[in-house]
Structure formats: C-alpha cells, structure tokens
Amino acid sequence: MLYHYVNGNIGLACSSDPDQPTAFAQTTFGCDSGLREALHSGITVFQVDYQGDSKVHSAYSDRLWGWDHKKHDCLCQKHWNNRGQYWHERTPKEISSFLSDYYGKKCTVVKIVLYENAANGYPVWNIFWTER
To answer: 34, 90, 115, 132: which sits with the fewest CB atoms below 10 Å from its CB?
Structure first.
C-alpha cells in the first residue's frame, strides 16, 4: 500500500507502482482493508509547522457544505470551476482562499487530514486553519 503526496495534491495509490498513482476518488471503494483502517483513523496529507499565536480552527469538508450548501457550491464554482465535494485535487493554497471567502476573513491552511466517512464510505477532509 502506498501513500504519497504529489505536487501539492493528495496522491493515494492502491497500486504497488508509485509511478502510476490512482486518484483517491476512484479507488476508495476498491481498496484493501489496510487503507480503509488507516482512513478511519485519518491520514495526514498536508501539514506545516505552525508556531503562531492564532487559534487553530478546523472544519470537515462535508460540514462546510452542510452548514451552507449554496455558499459552498458558489465558492467551489468560483475557485475550482466545479461544485464537487471531492477535495483531493485542491491545493492547500486554493483551500485557504476558499476558506477566506467562506468565513469572510484571511485563512491559512496548516493541516489537512483525510478520513473515510464511516456512515457512507465517501472521503472527507478535516481542514485545520488559522486566521492570518
């Protein structure tokens, strides 16, 4: 099982060939139990050292949609030209810009943890950010 980070995006592979990564969104349902177990605990896919004074906030990607799906969809369209809820091709810099618009204040992503939603099997991202 391979887990790797590629060009600012999540690269998860259920293949043994690291030169042929398979997008998470296409492999979630076919992955072996090792990946599923890891996803239940969470896989950190992005993290920077943060030593600042600002409080670190977090929000799950599906909650951003649930709290205000119209705002979510409008801002996804603005930032990524789609309204999708898969975040695997979205960079931390882009997500920071999205969150800044969503919350109406300057946000900087400091960590992203990928999970599998136990209720439905879909991927969900927990995004940690600071106000800066």
So the answer is: 34
